[in-house]
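dumping this here before i forget
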Amino acid sequence: MELGMIGLGRMGANMTERLLRGGHKLITYDRSPEAIQRCVDRGAVGAHSLADFVKQLSLPRAIWLMVPSGDPVDLTIEQLIPSLSKEDIIVDGGNSHYKDSIRRAEKLKQLGIHFVDAGTSGGIWGLQEGYCLMIGGEKATIEQLEPIFKTLAPENGFAHVGPSGAGHFVKMVHNGIEYGMLQAYGEGFEMLKTSQFELDLGKISRLWNRGSVVRSWLLELAESAFAKDPQLSSIRGYVEDSGEGRWTVLEAVEREIPAPILTLSLFARFASRQDDSFSAKVIAALRNEFGGHPVRTNTESR
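structure:
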């Protein structure tokens, strides 16, 4: 299948490569000529402007956006609209707010253009392992894109979860849960590190993944992080938040849903920017392991 990919950063470039390996034709565009060239070197077709990008796509066009949430998504869509035709499809695979996705879908529907919101999880491991895709939009449109979803996802790794906005809503809650899980692991490993025992945290990570009820991929990544730096001494306990954790907490407040764990895990990230802690180091290391998110070193100033 032919697909246009806009945004060739950490995720977009890897998704492009996975699709190329699956036999799809990719037309690619990014503001960085170097990013385009890297994808061309892997077999994609490069475009050097949005107009050139749209021109190279066959009708009806399918375009996947992997650009930062918020204004960049709206700006990209606005720049695309004059060149698009009825029945074209735009997929937003970034971490957009679900209310923005509902608004964009309604606007594009009036123009005869289909919109799909695809919450995407997989981080830097998605190229090898596949991406978990939480998809919102019209059933018929999603069925058209099924060859793309099947290639991007592992077996049973994508689902049509509901109408426009549902995909990004599910991804938002997914990331809120992720905050809570990371916080639990971070606090637990800090208790182990500060105990009276000289404990091998990498060994314990490996042990807990053998039959324990807390086994998980995150623990595998913890084992990897501790193997690289047993005390995480090179990492500052400074943890960013991507925005979706905040949205989840605000949604809980709006709906009057008690979500103390998710809320406190967000506040703990704020606290990490004030006082260094080992639990924050663990969370920062795990985010780097699964998503390639940058870590701050002890040589960097606050």
